[in-house]
Amino acid sequence: MMPRLPFPRRPPRDAEREQRERDAYERTHRVLDALPEQQWSIVSPYELRHGQRAHVAVGTNGVYLIIARKPPGSVRVKDGVPWLRQIGDAQRERAGTDVVRKALEPASALSRQIRSRAGRALAVHAVVVLWSEFPQGTVETSQITFVHGRDLAGWLRSRPAELDRAGIDEIAQAVKDVAAEHARHGHTPPSGSQVA
User: Fold this and answer.
1) For residue 4, is it within any domain?
2) What pTM, to 2 d.p., does this model score?
3) Crossing angle of helices 165-184 and 97-118, rounded to 10°
4) Is there a domain that residue 194 lies in?
5) What is the rounded CA–CA span in Å between residue 97 and residue 159?
6) CA 167, 151, 148, 69 torsion: positive or negative?
7) Residue ranges in 34-71 assigned as alpha helix (H)
8) What is the largest CA-CA distance in the chain?
9) Tens of pLDDT, residues 111-164
10) How many structural domains comprise the chain?
């Protein structure tokens, strides 16, 4: 007889959801990769908990932890919370509070890690990029921004200046060091991915 595990087993992975997240990540990567190198440094993948990947963009316009999502339906943001109306279910919406937490917590942690490595107190802006129907296009709250993928580059360029070139290099190196530390502690990037 096998002993009972002290923790419940993780539910089986949803292959369709994983494919949507992979697609959203790759589309976001292409947008970020097209930003001018002299103004931006992109660290990807930046590993989050449970093997989820994000990007960190460090540029003249600040530091951004970017999580990409492609939910199956239409999204609208009310009072800082994304609500999903799934395809085929026009009557019900489901709150996406989980994605808010998954963006805010690592952005706050990265801000602390940058301060400890580079000695700079910088806000890391949490951003959720949506690659599904999102009629609002961009919604900014005091803590998090939701932006449609097609608008991401323009939104990043429109942000106020926060760093000079030396600052970009210094902060990008600190972020790369944090990403490497994540990799050493079990947040191993998927094969074919590297810290850029």
Assistant:
1) no
2) 0.84
3) 110
4) no
5) 25
6) negative
7) none
8) 63
9) 999 999 998 888 999 999 999 999 999 999 989 999 999 999 999 999 999 898
10) 1
